[in-house]
Amino acid sequence: MELWYTEKQTDNFGITAKIKQTYVHEQTQFQELAMIETEEWGNMLVLDGMVMTTVRDEFVYHEMVAHPALFTHPNPENVLVVGGGDGGVIREVLKHPKVKKAVLVDIDGKVIEYSKQYLPSIAGKLEDPRVSVQVDDGFKHIHDHKNTYDVILADTTEPVGPAVHLFTRGFYQGIYESLKEDGLFVAQTDNPWFKADLIRSVNRDVKEVFPIVRVYTANIPTYPSGLWTFTMGSKKHDPLNVKPEDIAELDTKYYTPRLHQAAFALPKFVEDLTK
Amino acid sequence: MELWYTEKQTDNFGITAKIKQTYVHEQTQFQELAMIETEEWGNMLVLDGMVMTTVRDEFVYHEMVAHPALFTHPNPENVLVVGGGDGGVIREVLKHPKVKKAVLVDIDGKVIEYSKQYLPSIAGKLEDPRVSVQVDDGFKHIHDHKNTYDVILADTTEPVGPAVHLFTRGFYQGIYESLKEDGLFVAQTDNPWFKADLIRSVNRDVKEVFPIVRVYTANIPTYPSGLWTFTMGSKKHDPLNVKPEDIAELDTKYYTPRLHQAAFALPKFVEDLTK
């Protein structure tokens, strides 16, 4: 007998992956959570029917949420990750020696718990002494912490379920106020093939709040269309002013100093969504 | 009743697309050919069980085979397309006013015939007076035409079926000899997630023949992993010396002057395959 996980990424298209076993499948307080062992991608975390991360390709997403922001800010001492309970973004943040404190705020403690158990290569750094893990509402957290962070990274699910209010102008305004005077943030902002309207509206909203707004992309094979966008909003520092020679070599598998600026060179049809 | 086309891109992973109807499904002299109407991607050409092109996302592949090469060569008058019977690469080649003659050599006349019938937005330019369409073996063609072309574009299927000898050192040597003294070529060279060994071996082979070898990528959502590589071999002109300001604006949906160099900035794990 063969078992396959099939995700309808749209009503008419999807991916399918052969499964070895299902470790967890439950309704948490906030969402439907599954932890599956796949043949192709290793262990895979699925929330509300959408692949969040897999052991094999997680490095792309986690590196590309963290490093463009952390190499754009000259002194990222205090970093907040909203969502990201699997711990992958935190792991990348900690590669930057300037980081003194990294706070993770995920609303769903079950994501953190099962990631530690089934995704240790991703979640292993959540125990680091520089990290503070808080099970709480990210929206509330930023409103309770004004003028606090140098960098905020929004590693959220899609705008359905618990993350729905994390794709609103109010959220970006809250992030602005939670950042210090030269702070910046990055949010994952879905894919341009199936969610063009979302990218367009997020871009418009972030531009109303931040003076510098830049979109970049990365290839994530288990995400819809394989092309993912990230939106950076910044008060002062422009990622396009960062030169390859200013970027320290880190131990990465996707991000490189030369890729930093190149990731911001968008395909024409994506660029058109940001105008 | 719902019909879905499911392509196993590896033994353990694939894509699935809802179908409206199947226009053609037959064994040609060379391969299994299907022309399917899908909900998400429009009409889709499938050869030997692999998506070759779809009406909705074809622009990425066809632009990215043609434009990096044609903007790297200062005077691309004579261009050969090996394979590419759907006509998409030819359509992009003809956007360059310097092109005087574009020869298409595909071994399978059925691909050309059905593309004209079911993919008119892609194949429509095959009737252009600058184009010569020849149903023939591309390997044989290049050996019969020494010192003839400025640019050769290898728009082949994967290295199974009729294209198996188009991923060999002998093919690259033949291309070298078929090019003029400052000629260059581009070949599609599959994806780094599932075909790392192929990219590594092609890179090694092309480096034995051409002094300048560069790899670049593009996102193609209906191809395995969504991340596609292309390899350019050049006798004299380096694509990395082409500046955005030297590139004329064309009517494109993916390629842009700024994307030209950025496409060559590889993710670390891809870069490692080329060393």
Quickly describe the structure.
The structure is a homodimer of 275-residue chains. In chain A, 28% of the residues lie in helices and 32% in strands.
- Determine the oligomeric state from the structure: homodimer
> Sheet with the most strands of chain A?
7 strands, mixed
Please tell me how large the radius of gyration of chain A is: 18 Å
Structural class of chain A: alpha/beta
Low-confidence stretches of chain A: none
Structure description:
2 copies of one chain form a homodimer. Chain A has 275 residues and is α/β, with parallel strands linked by helices. Chain A folds into 2 domains: 3-54, Spermidine Synthase, Chain: A, domain 2 (Roll), CATH 2.30.140.10; 58-274, 3-Layer(aba) Sandwich (Rossmann fold). Chain A is 28% helix and 32% strand. Chain A is built from 9 helices and 12 strands. The first copy, chain A, has helices spanning 58-72, 88-93, 109-118, 120-123, 138-144, 169-178, 196-209, 257-262, 268-271; strands at residues 3-8, 13-27, 32-38, 42-47, 50-54, 78-83, 101-106, 131-135, 149-155, 179-188, 212-219, 227-234. A 7-stranded mixed beta sheet of chain A has the order 8-7-6-9-10-12-11, sandwiched between helices. The first copy, chain A, has a 5-stranded antiparallel beta sheet with strand order 1-2-3-4-5. In chain A, helix 5 crosses helix 6. The longest helix of chain A is centred in the N-terminal third of the chain and has 15 residues, at 58-72. Chain A is globular, with a radius of gyration of 18 Å. The mean pLDDT of chain A is 96. The A-B interface holds A 6, 10-18, 38-41, 57, 60, 193, 217-221, 225-227, 252-256, 258-259, 261-269, 271 and B 6, 10-18, 38-41, 57, 60, 193, 217-221, 225-227, 252-256, 258-259, 261-269, 271.
